[in-house]
């Protein structure tokens, strides 16, 4: 993905797939959720969208990008099994 490109062309260099519902998904994403909208509630000027998860995909080897204290960072963690 290229920050200089405009419109849909900026996503053309990435690998894309389809979720269960047929919606597009970036294959390199850390995690993706395929949801069906159940309800939308207006809260002031913002909509709150509630959905049911149909499927989830993940890449456990990837680290999530976090925005914290006005900067981007990653965290290292391990899940206890």
If you had to describe this structure to a student in words, what would you say it looks like?
This protein is mostly beta strands. The chain has one domain (7-74): Electron Transport, Fmn-binding Protein, Chain A (Pnp Oxidase, Chain A, Roll). It has strands spanning 16-18, 24-26, 31-43, 46-58, 65-68, 71-74. The protein is extended, with a radius of gyration of 16 Å.
Task: Write a short abstract of this structure.
This protein is mainly beta and 81 residues long.
Principal-axis shape equals extended
- Identify the CATH architecture: Roll
The domain tally reads: 1
Average pLDDT level: 86
Structural class: mainly beta
> Strand order across the biggest sheet?
1-2
Low-confidence segments, given as residue ranges, are none
Question: Helicity range of the residues?
Answer: under 10%
Number of strands: 6
Radius of gyration: 16 Å
Task: Give the CATH H-level superfamily.
Answer: Electron Transport, Fmn-binding Protein, Chain A
Most strands sheet: 2 strands, antiparallel
The helix/strand order is EEEEEE
Q: State the CATH topology.
A: Pnp Oxidase, Chain A
CATH class: Mainly Beta
State which percent range the strand residues make up: over 45%
Distance between the termini: 35 Å
Count of helical segments? Answer: 0
């Amino acid at each position: 993905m290229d920050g200089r490109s405009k419109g849909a062309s900026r996503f053309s260099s990435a690998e894309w797939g389809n979720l269960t519902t047929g919606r597009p998904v970036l294959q390199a994403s850390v995690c993706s959720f395929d949801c069906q909208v159940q309800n939308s509630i207006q809260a002031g000027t913002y909509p709150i969208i509630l959905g049911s998860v149909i499927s989830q995909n993940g890449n456990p080897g990837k680290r999530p990008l976090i925005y914290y204290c006005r900067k981007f960072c990653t965290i290292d963690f391990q899940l206890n099994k």
